[in-house]
Amino acid sequence: MDNFVFPELKQRTVEDEITSRLRNAIIGGNFAPGSHLNETEVAKQMNVSRIPIREAIKKLEQEGLLVRHTNRRVFVVSFSAHDVKEVFSMRANLECMAFEWALPNMGVDDFVALQDLIAQQKNAIASEDYENLAGLDMQFHEFIVSKAKHSRLLKSWYEQHAQSQMLLNVRFRKMSDYTPETVVRDHIQILEAIKRSDIDAAKLLTLQISERVALECCQTLGEFLGTSEPEGGR
Amino acid sequence: MDNFVFPELKQRTVEDEITSRLRNAIIGGNFAPGSHLNETEVAKQMNVSRIPIREAIKKLEQEGLLVRHTNRRVFVVSFSAHDVKEVFSMRANLECMAFEWALPNMGVDDFVALQDLIAQQKNAIASEDYENLAGLDMQFHEFIVSKAKHSRLLKSWYEQHAQSQMLLNVRFRKMSDYTPETVVRDHIQILEAIKRSDIDAAKLLTLQISERVALECCQTLGEFLGTSEPEGGR
DNA sequence: TTATTGTATACTGTATACAGTATACAATAA
DNA sequence: TTATTGTATACTGTATACAGTATACAATAA
After folding, report:
1. Does the pLDDT of residue A100 top 90, yes or no?
2. CB neighbours of residue B36 within 10 Å
3. Torsional sign, CA A48, A49, A55, A56
């Protein structure tokens, strides 16, 4: 077969496809927190049986995006003020741990890559492409956490990130006082700390930013936040 | 109906039952890491259909105890030396965060409860009841993490704990140099730090202990550790 | 009226059936 | 013999069917 080799075919099951569609819809804020999901209905819409839907739901339940009560419906998570604190504190804690693991693995190339992400963020702000900005925001942090080469850390971080992203998207849909410039400022500061290999500074910044964002989230979402239990629960 | 009230009936689905059975079997070291699971066979043994088995597997996959490759079999996780490092470092990091959240919630009653657990551990050691000791060891840490009142922290901790427990059980089955006395000593030191509200000391102890145990685990398991990928993967 | 009970309907949980893929091994050709 | 291809079998992925539970609302009695 000569020298040419085909790249491995990564099989995507129906379940995988459903999982990402549902996940994106939830994170993107297309379902209101606390709203319920009808397996049969979703299956009908996607023209598949309920089994792969159920498996996708099980996965997203474990990721903390859906809540199921036996024999009752499936609900999109809703956040209490305490939940917001949980999500952002976990995320910040995991990112702090990531600095410890990642910094020894990072070099000039990585600093450049991060710098580039910040530049793209500026462009996104300039062209008021806020959806893109959210993605770039994520990529900045994801880049660092990935560099930690710590699969369990990364997995847990993704879960918290998905929830925080969902909160920010809901907020973005409801509010208009969004100040995207702070994103760039925060990232520049973190990158500076990383370049100096100043782990403590990077951690401190992360914790401070996290607390600020959590607070903003709670304040602006205000009455929109539910209690810990989803509305449909008993 | 007078004053008498029935406690709520918590319904346990077939899937729930299967999940705990499988989880216990895996954590307990009844399946060798890297061994594979046959859905049909498990279904036959438990005399249920494959659907609830599949849902249980999906859950345990998310918990990091099972690994599935599309259209190939399901494998019990196997740990590389790096995986061992990951598990214990995550667990330690989460426990450190737990101190921050838990200590403000803890009072004399809690110190007494922890003291009592340590006493029970001494008894277990005296009567060489090591299975019980493992449970009591867990309860000590679980108690503290629970006091943090942080559901996401607790969930992630449980996942790491399950994997560390699995490692320790495999080790215990293979090795004979187990020195249970250190468990008691470690716990006494942590409890002392907690009583003094000395979070930094508690954190330091946790990180040190974690690193020591991870190292011991790697050394004693030695050749028994696999690579990151389960044996059957391609 | 209002609280309680009965009944239909919608939805979830599980079993069964079957299609699609991987694996093991036999058959074939060099 | 050894490498390659064909074929049977085992196992996973998904659809369909049905039983069990929750929910909504009508019927009934006070």
Report:
1. yes
2. 16
3. positive
> For residue B71, what are its two tokens?
């259209």
Number of structural domains (chain B) is 2
Kindly state whether residues A103 and A166 are assigned to the same domain: yes
Residue B227, pLDDT score: 56
In whole angstroms, C4 C1' to A214 CA is: 47
Is the same domain home to B88 and B72?
Answer: no
d(CA B128, nearest CA chain A) in Å: 34
Tell which wins on pLDDT, B107 or B218.
B107
Q: Which residues are within 8 A (CB) of B27 and not within 5 positions of it... i.e. 6 or more apart?
A: B65, B162, B165, B166, B169
Residue type, A94: L
B90-100: average pLDDT: 98
Please give the angle made by the CA atoms of B103, B109 and B113, to the nearest 5 degrees.
90
Rg (CA), chain B: 19
**For residue B179, what pLDDT is reported?**
73
Residues A156, B151: C-beta atoms closer than 8 Å: no
Same-domain pairing of B43 and B106: no
Cβ contact A122 with chain C strand, < 7 A: no
Can you give the pLDDT at residue B210? Answer: 94
Confirm whether B229 is domain-assigned. no
**More confidently predicted of B200 and A10:** B200
- Whether residue A68 lies within 8 A of chain B, CB to CB, comes out as no
Rounded to whole angstroms, the Cα distance separating A233 from A70 reads 11
For residue A11, list chain B residues with Cβ-Cβ distance below 8 A: 70-71
CATH number of the domain within which A20 lies: 1.10.10.10
Is A179 found in the same domain as A102? yes
Q: Is the pLDDT of residue B150 over 90?
A: yes
A105–B contact, CB cutoff 8 A: no
Q: What is the pLDDT of residues A166-195, one digit of tens each?
A: 888 877 666 556 677 888 999 999 999 999
Give pLDDT, residue B229. 43
pLDDT at B18 > cutoff 70: yes
Token pair in block for residue A76: 């999109």
| DSSP helix/strand/coil, B96 | helix
More confident residue, B14 or B182: B14
- Where does residue A144 fall: left (phi above 0), alpha (psi -120 to 50 degrees), or beta otherwise? alpha
Q: Which two tokens stand for residue A196?
A: 């100096």
Within 8 A by CB and 6+ apart from A59, the residues are A15, A19, B58, B62
**B20 and B119, same domain (yes or no):** no
- Pair (A34, A118) in one structural domain: no
Nucleic acid strand C within 7 Å of A40 CB: yes
Residues in CB range of B85: below 8 A, 6 or more apart: B214, B218
Residue B87 contacts A where some CB pair is shorter than 8 Å: yes
**Domain of residue B70, residue span:** 14-76
